[in-house]
Amino acid sequence: MADTENPITVLSEARAWDLLAGQQVGRLATALDRMPEIFPVNFAVDGESIVFRTAEGSKLVEVVLNEQVAFEVDGWDDNGGWSVVARGAAEVILDAQGLLRAEALPLRPWTPTVKSNFVRIVVDSISGRSFVFGPDPVARYRYGHNRRV
User: Fold this and answer.
1) Quick check: helix, strand or coil at residue 3?
2) Of 139, 144, 102, the residue nearest 4 (C-alpha)
3) What was the pLDDT predicted at 64?
4) What is the pTM of this model?
5) Does residue 1 register a pLDDT over 50?
6) pLDDT tens-digit profile of 39-80?
7) CB 124, CB 89: distance < 8 Å
8) Which terminus of the chain, N or C, has fewer Cβ atoms within 10 Å?
């Protein structure tokens, strides 16, 4: 049964990291010249950072020109969902030790393309919320029946 009084719960930082680490695909949000972009990427969590691989191209250019990024993952089932957003600075991994560490992560390209660049997002802040699905309370009273949100 939906909790109509408290359908949104703010997650602890630890729970947000747990949910983030349990996923393989997220969305990288960048902005360059006030133009936002969102890129789906597969990733791995490394400590309190996020690592992904990328080919030469717009993703790499955008994180080099503006390192401040956001990263989002989410999940849901029939009863509810959750969303986690991490913010921080993206940096291309260039040092030998950092590359060895990144290559040891369970992170392989999903497409048959060369993705030789590793990028690490050093997370400054992480937040998350969980949601209980339920009927729209306004529609229920206005239209006399339960509509799903």
Assistant:
1) coil
2) 139
3) 86
4) 0.84
5) no
6) 999 999 999 999 999 988 888 888 888 999 999 999 998 889
7) yes
8) N
Taking the CA atoms of residue 19, residue 22, residue 26 and residue 29 in that order, the dihedral angle to the nearest 10 degrees is 40
Closest to 73 in 3D by CA, of 45, 103, 112, 102: 45
- What is the residue whose two structure tokens read 């600075």? 89
| Residue range 103-127, pLDDT digits in tens | 999 998 788 888 889 999 999 999 9
Q: Give helix then strand counts, H and E, for the chain.
A: 4, 7
Closest C-alpha among 36, 53, 141 to residue 105: 53
Are 81 and 7 in contact by the 8 Å Cβ rule? The answer is no
For the record, the structure tokens of 87 come out as 């913010």
CA distances from 24 to 14, 48, 74, 96, 144 (A): 18, 16, 11, 25, 41
Q: Coil, helix or strand for 74?
A: strand
C-alpha distances in Å from residue 133, one per residue of 59, 75, 80, 140: 34, 13, 5, 14
Q: How many CA atoms lie within 13 A of 101 on its CB side?
A: 15
